[in-house]
Design a protein that fits this description.
Layout (H helix, E strand, L loop, with lengths): L3 E7 L2 E7 L11 H6 L3 E14 L4 E8 L2 E8 L8 E11 L3 E12 L4 H9 L8 H11 L3 H7 L12 H26 L4 H11 L3 H7 L13 H10 L7 H17 L4 E3 H12 L3 H13 L4 E5 L2 E5 L1 H18 L9 H12 L5 H11 L3 E6 L5 H15 L3 E5 L2 H11 L4 E2 H5 L1 E2 L6 E2 L11 E4 L7 H10 L5 E6 L12 H8 L4 E4 L4 H4 L2 H10 L13 E5 L2 H20 L7 E5 L8 H12 L8 E2 L8 E2 L3 E4 L3 E8 L2 E7 L4 E8 L4 E6 L2 E5 L7 E3 L2 E3 L8 E8 L9 H8 L2 E9 L1 H9 L10 H9 L4 E4 L4 E5 L1 H4 L9 E4 L2 E2 L2 E2 L2 H15 L8 E6 L5 H13 L4 E6 H8 L10 E6 L4 E7 L2 E8 L3 H16 L1 E2 L2 H10 L11 E8 L5 E7 L4 H20 L3 H10 L1 E4 ...
Parallel strand pairs: 5-7, 11-17, 11-18, 12-13, 12-16, 16-17, 19-32, 20-30, 20-31, 31-32, 38-39, 40-46, 46-47
Antiparallel strand pairs: 1-2, 3-4, 3-6, 4-5, 6-7, 8-10, 9-10, 14-15, 21-22, 23-26, 23-29, 24-25, 24-28, 26-27, 27-28, 33-34, 33-35, 36-37, 39-48, 40-41, 41-42, 43-44, 44-45
Length: about 1100
């Protein structure tokens, strides 16, 4: 009896755990013993091996069973002539080969008497031993021959013709063969297959049985990954106690692996301990001791985010850290905007015959001026048009631009939409499966040759795959990520797109405007309504979206009727090629399993000449003409293409049609687009009928027509992202069948979208690694920057982690000095040449604060130090021509302050600064929620509300987010849905303060310059400028145009770098702050940067 799985919601996240049942009552009896009691038994000696597959362990051989020859077939792990075998199975009548014994398990023993040993060795099973040598060996060593070969092979040299080298080869091959059979026999005792035994032998080698006997829980890990309950039964039979150290460690590892399969890259320590304690039925203190042991041995890793400790599997932590490091590096890397970009965009517009929308232009400019960028938006918002523009401009600049997507169907769709070749990520990286494990040919040692990589359907990419892609990308390669953040996250671990957007570090443009042609589609309109938390419109017969009320078996019948008759008749759709049923669940009358059976009976019923594999009693039938789906990645299967090169690999979610069935060989041929695959008997489990598939499996695909049954959906699957993803798979028609009540439950439920991941925290730290570690016992700095960052979550009590800068002001001079020293040493390793350093400071910085900055920089070894005001740096970074006799106005909204300036002829004319910016919005939202709803929330929750829900203007946008916090009324945890309308008041209050300050600056500006600003508009920079509706609110208050700069997050950093070369032309806002004593010394010292 195996352990079942139960799903329990915790704080909005889905934690999947094993729940123990009463399985230990039968611990003494092995699974094989129970199974063998119900099977036929055949004993005899192997006479002749007809066929053998060493990879899978499948063999066909003749057994002499008391004078009767019986053909035996099955996965037995390999046999040899002369072996004594006991086989358990049953007789079957093969349609081509007649009667044979189908083996389920086998027990094999080596020959014991001399005649059997002679027969065994004479078969040529061992190298260098033929019939003649076999006779000599048996004559010399008798019944001890095999022991001599295995244990004392040097004795074989006593025979003429066998030297030491040959003896060693004979012995090693014999021990290998015996080892495999020993493993097969051990596995068979516990109901495991010979194929699993062969796989284990490859992983653990000749000592497999010894290793598994000492620790059977190794079977839970790679390469077999057996279910914990199955392995626990084996451990029980081996007399392992329920509270033993190995079982506890295996339970913790299994819990993390299992939850990784459900999308979580890590788990909070408390939740891991609690869930593992419950399913192992072991006290929590013993689980905690086991966890600490695993952490000490570095089999698990720990990180602390927002005061919560999270436990990681090492490979998943490495994946998230690598992704964060690379994206943080790319997002902060200064990149100049192409000088002809505006003109190039105008040329594209003339060629296309239409003008790009403002947000599309912003995305195009940001893509061309950044090393990394995210483009996100729902259906109908112009993502494809924007991607085509970005692609055209990049192809004019670079020779090598790659388009890729996570799945074959997504890549094909991307290719069709752009008119350019696109591939899957796997094919881009080129899979090497020769080692038995998935490896990519392109990696950090063999980089891809591309200058730009555009990655579509980013929401589907998991952390391991993205880690591999970034590792294989060249250092200067630009990464453009495109996706819909409101779709379901990846099937594998992680939620990369969602985490990137929540971190706010990577330059991002979210397209929100629905274009006129898309507005006519009810599919598009309803998709946006679902995202905003509103019920879809029902639609009618003339619309491309409508809901038909139905439940239970009636809904099942309705779906079948729609697919087979009504939709083909009304719209001309092909029921197999054009219509796809997408199910929220596998189970129930409207689940994919039952609907597949019904639709297969209707659309492709059994018929004479229509071959099939499987019967009515089988779990599935694969029939000629069936639509099928690949349900797991197979990197080793080959395909052929007419008139093109053959290839390797089929991937989870690929769809095809069965074009041939070989019943005798149990093989099928499947056409997937232009690729022809042949699936052998041991690969058929990779295929499933696909008349109905789950919504999860449909990610990255689009279909002309979608039927989406939303009746009898389990509560755990009633959530918004699932419904939204299903609806957006439809290109021409979407039909919902079910109940409005279920539909409403899915629309209102947002909490199931969450996954445990630390990527957003790692991204923030990677983008701003200004942190230092201090040993409080000696008051000494022991690490800064990345070295100190690695200590977060691991540092003992006597080490403090300090951030020396706050809101642009130095809080810890000693740590700041150490950080700058490390930075200078990193970029300028020579002790002879000293660098010129520009430092960006708030416009309102005091003289004392400025002196502290200069002192730290000079002490770090700078030759000269320049201070540049934030508004000036922002204007430079945004590409404004500030040296011209023309006024421009910049509002830089950072984290701690907002700096406003009117700039002309290289200097500030009027300026102001106020302590209202991103952090103030967070604090104000948190305070408002506390006062209005009596719920205390943390700063991260407030920041999420600001980014996902808040809006400064009343518009059609209506976001919603469930917040969790601490109730001031009950003193218990509380939750509440917060809508955009709830946050207008606090957000507008602060937006009004920024607008007032900007208006005061504008009103005090000379009339000519004010007129310039009125004609050219105001430019917003800084992360705070991305607050939804802020630009339009300020525009309304100033009665002038307001725009957000391309890549507003990096404008200041880019402008600071530019100021070093442009500074001499600036009249204000940039100054040489080098102390006079240093300037005098410079005037009398040879400048190594100046030519003689």
């Amino acid at each position: 009896m195996f352990w079942g799985f139960a799903k329990r919601p915790h704080m909005g996240y889905n934690i999947f755990i094993c729940e123990s049942a009463a399985i230990l009552a039968e611990r003494g009896q092995t699974m094989a013993e129970k199974q063998n009691q119900q099977l036929m038994k055949l004993e005899g000696v192997v006479e002749h091996v007809i066929y053998e597959n060493a990879e899978s362990g499948y063999a066909v051989f003749e057994v002499d069973a008391g004078g009767t020859d019986v053909v035996v077939a099955g996965n037995v792990g390999g046999v040899d002539n002369g072996m004594s075998v006991t086989v358990y199975g049953h007789m079957v009548n093969h349609p081509s080969y007649g009667e044979q014994f189908k083996a389920e398990t086998i027990e094999a023993s080596l020959p014991e008497d001399t005649s059997a040993i002679l027969s065994y060795l004479s078969s040529g099973v061992l190298p260098y031993i033929g019939p003649s040598t076999a006779k000599k060996l048996v004559a010399k060593f008798g019944e001890d021959t095999l022991n001599v070969i295995a244990q004392t092979p040097q004795k074989l040299c006593e025979l003429k013709g066998i030297n030491e080298q040959k003896a060693a080869i004979i012995s090693n091959e014999f021990r290998r063969m015996y080892g495999v059979r020993e493993v097969v026999a051990w596995f068979a005792r516990y109901g495991l297959t010979a194929q699993q035994a062969v796989t284990a032998y490859r992983a653990f080698g000749p000592h497999t049985v010894e290793a598994l006997t000492q620790n059977p829980y190794l079977l839970c890990g790679e390469p077999l990954q057996l279910k914990f309950g199955q392995v626990d039964g084996i451990a029980a039979a081996l007399q392992f106690e329920t509270g033993c150290r190995l079982r506890v460690a295996a339970g913790l590892l299994y819990a993390l692996r299992h939850n990784a399969g459900n999308g979580h890259t890590c788990l909070p320590r408390d939740k891991l301990l609690d869930s593992t304690s419950k399913f192992l039925r072991v006290p929590p203190d013993e689980i905690e001791a086991g966890l600490d042991e695993l952490l000490s041995a570095e089999e698990l890793r720990t990180r602390t985010f927002d005061g919560v400790e999270y436990i990681y599997l090492p490979d998943l932590l490495s994946a998230e850290e690598d992704i964060a490091a690379r994206l943080g590096q790319l997002s902060t890397f200064p990149t100049e905007v192409p000088k002809t970009l505006d003109a190039d965009i105008r040329v594209l517009e003339m060629a296309q015959g239409f003008e790009y929308a403002p947000l599309q232009k912003q995305a195009i400019k940001l893509a061309l001026s950044s090393r990394v960028m995210v483009l996100t938006g729902g259906p109908g918002t112009g993502k494809t048009t924007t991607v085509n523009a970005i692609l055209s401009l990049y192809e004019a600049l670079y020779d090598r631009v790659a388009l890729c997507a996570p799945t074959g169907r997504a890549a094909k769709r991307l290719s069709e939409l752009t008119g350019h070749a696109a591939s899957t990520i796997h094919r881009l990286l080129e899979v090497d499966y020769s080692s038995g494990n998935v490896r990519f040919i392109h990696n950090e040692k063999n980089l891809l040759k591309y200058d730009v990589i555009i990655l579509d359907e980013m929401s589907m990419v998991d952390v391991k795959l993205f880690q591999a892609l970034l590792a294989a990308a060249r250092y200067h390669c630009r990464i453009i990520m495109v996706g819909d953040a409101d779709q379901l996250p990846s099937v594998g671990p992680g939620n990369i797109l969602g985490e990137i957007l929540r971190a706010g570090v990577v330059p991002t443009v979210r397209l929100t405007d629905i274009f006129r042609q898309a507005q006519q589609s009810l599919i598009v309109q309803n998709a946006h309504r679902i995202v905003e938390g509103r019920m879809p419109q029902k639609g009618g017969a003339k619309d491309d979206f409508f809901l038909i009320e139905s439940t239970g078996l009636a809904c099942q019948k309705l779906v079948c009727d729609l697919v087979s008759k009504r939709l083909p008749k009304a719209y001309g759709f092909d029921p197999v090629k054009d219509i796809q049923v997408l199910c929220p669940t596998k189970v129930g009358p409207t689940g994919s399993v039952e609907l597949n059976k019904k639709l297969q009976e209707i659309l492709n019923p059994p018929a004479k000449g229509r071959a099939q594999i499987g019967t009515a009693e089988s779990a599935k039938i694969l029939r000629l003409g069936d639509k099928v789906m690949q349900v797991k990645n197979d990197y080793d299967i080959t395909f052929e293409r007419d008139g093109a090169e053959a290839g390797v690999g089929a991937y989870n979610g690929d769809l095809g049609i069965i074009t041939a069935v070989d019943v005798d060989a149990r093989a099928v041929t499947v056409m997937m687009d232009d690729r022809k695959y042949t699936y052998t008997a041991d690969q058929l489990n990779e295929l499933e009928p696909a008349y109905a598939v789950t919504v999860h499996k449909s990610q990255g695909s689009e279909f002309p027509a979608v039927v989406l049954p939303v009746a009898d959906v389990p509560a755990r699957l009633c959530y918004r992202n699932l419904l939204y993803t299903g609806v957006t798979r439809a290109r021409k028609l979407c039909v919902l069948t079910g109940t409005a009540r279920t539909e409403q439950a899915m629309v209102e439920n947002v909490r199931q979208n969450m996954r445990y991941s630390g990527l957003r925290y790692l991204l923030k730290d990677a983008a701003t690694p200004t942190i230092g570690a201090v040993d409080t016992r000696t008051n000494s700095i022991i690490a800064v920057g990345d070295e100190a960052l690695k200590m977060v979550g691991r540092a003992p009590a006597h080490i403090d982690l300090v951030r020396p800068l706050r809101d642009g002001i130095i809080q810890d001079h000693r740590m700041t000095n150490e950080l700058i020293v490390r930075f200078v040493n990193e970029v300028c390793r020579s002790r002879i040449f000293k660098p010129r350093i520009a430092v960006c400071v708030p416009a309102a910085i005091t003289g004392i604060e400025a002196d502290a900055v200069v002192e730290s920089v000079m002490a770090a070894g700078a030759k000269q130090v320049f201070l540049v005001d934030e508004p000036v740096a922002a204007a430079l970074g945004a590409g404004l021509q500030i040296r011209q006799p023309h006024g421009c106005m910049v509002v830089d909204i950072g984290g701690g302050s907002t700096d406003i300036a009117v700039i002309s002829m290289g200097g500030r004319v009027k300026a102001a600064s106020l302590p209202v910016a991103g952090n103030a919005f967070d604090n104000c939202i948190a305070q408002y929620i506390q006062e209005k709803y009596q719920i205390a929330i943390g700063p991260l929750t407030a920041e999420q509300l600001k980014k996902q829900v808040a809006c400064c203007t009343r518009s059609e946008f209506e976001g919603v987010m469930e917040v969790r916090g601490h109730s001031w009324e009950t003193n218990l945890p509380a939750r509440r849905l917060i809508y955009t309308r709830d946050l207008y008041e606090p957000v507008q209050e602060l937006a009004a303060r920024i607008a007032t300050a900007a208006r005061n600056v504008l009103e005090s500006t000379p009339p000519e310059l004010a007129a310039d600003v009125s004609s050219t508009g105001v430019l917003l920079t800084g992360g705070g400028s991305l607050l939804r509706g802020l630009a339009s609110y300020i525009a309304g208050e100033l009665h002038t145009d307001v725009a957000i700069a391309p890549d507003p997050l990096n404008c200041v950093a880019r402008g600071t770098a530019i100021s070093l070369s442009e500074g001499k032309y600036l009249t204000a806002g940039f100054r040489d702050a080098t102390p006079k004593s240093w300037n005098r010394r410079l005037n009398h010292t040879h400048d190594p940067f100046t030519a003689e």
